Amino acid sequence: EGDLYNWEVAIFGPPNTYYEGGYFKARLKFPIDYPYSPPAFRFLTKMWHPNIYETGDVCISILHPPVDDPQSGELPSERWNPTQNVRTILLSVISLLNEPNTFSPANVDASVMYRKWKESKGKDREYTDIIRRSWGPRWTRSGMV
């Protein structure tokens, strides 16, 4: 409380996804030179997702520094720029929950499972079962389920 550089945020699982009904706590940590450098985004709720590290850190282009890195496979226009804001960050993270980027996985096992699930047209339940188990007791707006 009172620290303008560290925010706790809550994300509700997007509708029509396997995260629906979930209440996910996260932390946004802003650098001193924000908005010229991107904040860091970390889920505090355990997550199983191709673009979320075991630590909860999110791997998403919008939060990568605006440097030209040919090895990343990202266009400079996909990276951080000072016109981004908390709203665009949260919308991007919510969108990522629904559509993972399997070309740049933070969790390779989750990425492989996601691709298998996608190829099976949803019949391979291993991926979806792990997602549901990963966040432990389900927290919703009305409390624990």
From TrEMBL:
Record flagged with keyword Nucleotide-binding: yes
Pfam family, one: UQ_con
Entry keyword Hydrolase: no
Active-site feature positions: C59 (glycyl thioester intermediate)
UBC core domain ranges (all copies): 1-136
Keywords for the protein's UniProt record, in alphabetical order: ATP-binding, Nucleotide-binding, Transferase, Ubl conjugation pathway
InterPro entries assigned: Ub_conjugating_enzyme, UBC, UBQ-conjugating_AS, UBQ-conjugating_enzyme/RWD
One example GO MF annotation: ATP binding
Pathway the protein acts in: Protein modification
Gene Ontology BP term (one): protein modification by small protein conjugation
Alphabetical list of PANTHER family matching this protein: UBIQUITIN-CONJUGATING ENZYME E2 (PTHR24067)
Family in the record: Belongs to the ubiquitin-conjugating enzyme family.
Protein name: CDC34 isoform 2
Source organism of this protein record: Pongo abelii
